[in-house]
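Holo model, pyridoxal-5'-phosphate. Inputs:
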Amino acid sequence: MVRSASAVREVPRQNEPTSGLPGLDRAFAYRGGVLTVEDVDLTAVAAAVGTPAYVYSEAALVGRYRLLADALAPLGAMVCYALKANSNQAVIATFARSGAGADVVSEGEMRRALAAGVPADRVVFAGVGKTRDELRAALAAGIMQVNVESEPELELLDAVAREMGRTAAVALRVNPDVDARTHAKISTGRKENKFGIDIALASAAAARAHALPGIAFKGFACHIGSQLTELAPFREAFARVAELVRTVRAQGIPVEHLDLGGGLGVRYGNEPLADVAGYAQAIRDTVAGLGCRLVVEPGRFLVAEAGLLLARVVYVKQGESRRFVIVDAAMNDLVRPAMYDAFHAVLPVREPPQGTTMAPVDLVGPICESSDTFARDRPMQEVSPGELVVFCTAGAYGAAMSSTYNSRPLVPEVLVRGDRFAVVRPRQAIETLLALDRLPPWHDEAQKPPGAANAARAQSS
Ligand SMILES: *Cc1c(COP(=O)(O)O)cnc(C)c1O
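Output:
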């Protein structure tokens, strides 16, 4: 496989950690007693951009992409990065330059993908609630395919396409009714989930799509959930979709595209993992023989272990029964622990000496919600105020899910390449945040002396 000229150099051997860090790519390691990202010392990043801050490794991003793309290359599968996992344009552009397409779920994401250099004919558009405007925008941009999730959406897309004098390339997203055995909030492939068309109804929907003049029916898509750590659910879903392809072809309807979704899990702690070779094998065994153009839509797999959230300890508070480590990052910056009870390993930036004793602490942020807790009873080395710590495996669904709750500005994102780093999203200024609001005109009037507003109204009428 030819590497694009823009692919970054391999991480030099001396970068390889003596022991792997939990939930981080090998581009992250302690060197000289300090946690580094490639050849960049995290204390230098903190000094330059402050904390909290997200820090990503370009070598890790490209390495993850290559790992998957190379495993799938013999199957001819195209990798469309699901950019909801991390939609910074520098991240998208890094993948685009490596040859990736994009999987988008809103007009905003579609525009980001195009702005970051993903060719329109490598963009697929998913989502259960695409609006008329979004369907229009997708057709106007000439993207590769719309993954339609319901019959009403199919009818609307047909109407929009005909209005525009176009035909819409469509894959029908089916719900294969498979248990992904992942967290309920990120499971999408059961009948009771809102996603896709029930597989039992899919061949009728395909016939309808095939018949509609505004639609070019291309095939099927499925995505059963996120953070899958077992291969069996993938196998089961792909096998069901393969069966559907055979049924639909038997009805005389051609099926050319098969989009297998994302969902490949990563290691946050020491959970078992579905490996890439096994994933490729599952595809080979179930759908590769159908002769379809294959697409996969990984998000988390490509970015999670390539990023961390850098934070600083503000206080250490000893309660009667618990010890709280209060950091300057909060649930608005990284919501996964509050939203999904997710585990993120936490490491100090200064390497603890061998044999340091650990004691359980509660790691919390400053937000006025008890759910603003990153970890409870987590064994940790002694840390003091001012010390830097990192939340591992924060490259996926970290910055992308952040908010400004508690009027906390969005934090910066930094991309590292070798010994250089660049701020790829600056810290939002509090002024910028405040300037988003407007006061209603009647507040001005209310401040004038009584009667002034009435007088003004009388004058203007
Ligand atoms: C979220 C999503 C993905 C990516 O999921 P990951 O678990 O991050 O790989 C892919 N396809 C669709 C349709 C999605 O909604």
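The pocket of pyridoxal-5'-phosphate is lined by residues 82, 84-85, 103, 105, 126, 223, 226, 261-264, 297-301 (CB under 6 Å). The longest helix spans residues 232-250.
Archived with the compound record.
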